[in-house]
Amino acid sequence: MAVTTRGSTWGGSSSNQSELLISYINDEIRVLEPELQYAMLGKKRDAPRGYDRILFPQTEQLATKIPVSVEGNLGGSVWGAGASIQGAAGSGAIVSSTAGVAAITEGTNPTAISWGATAYSTGQYQFGILVEVSDLLVRSSAIEVVDSCTRQVRYALARLVDSFLQTVVNSATNGVIYSGDKTSRATLAAGNTCTQTDIQKAVKNLRSSNAAGLRPYDGVYYAGVIHPAVMYDLMENTQTGSWADFGRYTSVDDLRAGKVGDFRGVRYLETAYQNYFNSTVPVMPTTILGEDSFGWGYFQEPQAMLTTTPDSNNPLGLYNSIGGKVTLGATKFEDAVGTYRIARVESAFTA
Predict the structure, then answer these.
(1) CATH of the domain at 295
(2) Are residues 87 and 149 in the same domain?
(3) 286 and 163 share a domain?
(4) Which phi and psi angles does 327 have, rounded to 5°?
(5) Structural domain tally of the chain?
(6) How do residues 118-175 score in pLDDT, each as one tens digit?
(7) Which residues, other chains included, contact 144 with Cβ-Cβ below 8 Å and sequence gap of 6+?
(8) pTM of the model as a whole
(9) Is residue 100 domain-shared with residue 208, that is, in the same domain?
């Protein structure tokens, strides 16, 4: 059992059990904590007590039949996020070549089609952490050990939530753009860094998704979760239409501050806590999202738990238990060619 004592792992040397025990502490220096972004971007719905699933129902669209008899018919379908989105009647497609809203032959009912709903749902995943500190450490340290440890437990749980959401959001199989015009993650090489062209492709696809366009946040900007290393590559890129090209004329303050901010339809949320993919070279995702791109919620909200009284496992009260747990779930929504709601640019990056 790993019990944290007053030894060298707690700020002192082995000969001087802990310098923190003999020096009065005026102020604790905070560790660097990442700015977490994903939790604020999803559609949040917590599970009521007694339920083991969180559901996000979406009723199917009813199709419009392509009017093949209209003079000047274009002969095509409807274009979505990088592909035609014509489908079979009753499949939830927006257009169909067989049935749907169509011209009525006098006195004849139109062909009926089926209609339903898609239930995007998530089960529950529980995570926890436990720290045990000796009673002497709690009593003798100049730092408020319990308060400090409890705060770090809360930070750890918050990072876990963000990591969990990243795993779900960035698992989408459609809507992926590979820098350097590559076709897969494995073919990305060190020089294939993110460009403004890649970002504009992502914005273009989200704006045309399902021939309706994914709604940006507040109707203005898509959110772009981006790592500082990828942001650096975008800032250094000097192609026509890039941030550097525009910024020297229109955003001098942003150039001075070294931040992209809002640019060409994207509000960038910079975070160093962006998980990358292990591949031929390390590959970093830049995730572009709009409203209702994914859903998540708590079954049990993050909570820190403190046990200071003796029990059968700790009869002499030689240590205090400080821990925490959280139970949550998450699901991405539509992830089909032409209708996806999450666009992701994968690129190498300047380390």
Answers:
(1) 3.90.1690
(2) no
(3) yes
(4) -125, 125
(5) 2
(6) 889 999 999 999 999 999 888 887 778 889 999 999 999 999 999 999 999 999 889 9
(7) none
(8) 0.85
(9) no
Length of the chain: 351
Residue 179 near residue 193 (C-beta atoms within 8 A): yes
Say which residues have a Cβ less than 8 Å from residue 63's Cβ, sequence separation at least 6: 87, 89, 90, 91, 93, 94, 95, 96, 99, 100, 101, 113
Place of tokens 């699933």: 53
337 part of a folded domain: yes
305 token code pair = 């738990």
Mind listing the pLDDT tens digit for each residue in 284-325?
999 999 999 999 999 999 999 999 888 888 889 899 999 999
* 3-state secondary structure labels for all residues of the chain: CCEECCCHHHCCCCCCCCHHHCCCCCCCCCCCCCCCCHHHCCEECCCCCCCCCEEEEEECCCCEECCCCCCCCCCCCCECECCECECCCCCCCCEECCCCECCCCCCCCCCCCCCCEEEEEECCEEEEEEEEEEHHHHHHCCCCHHHHHHHHHHHHHHHHHHHHHHHHHCCCCCCEEEHHHECCHHHCCCCCECCHHHHHHHHHHHHHHHHCCCCCECCCEEEEEECHHHHHHHHHCCCCCCHHHHHHHHCHHHHHHCCCCEECCEEEEECCCCCCECCCCCEEEEEEECCCCEEEEEEEEEEEEEECCCECCECCCCEEEEEEEEEEEEEECCCCCECCCEEEEEEECCC
Mark whether 88 and 219 lie in a shared domain. Answer: no
Query: Cα torsion at 164, 166, 169, 174 (round to 10°)?
Result: -130
Residues 6+ apart with CB under 8 A from 309: 317
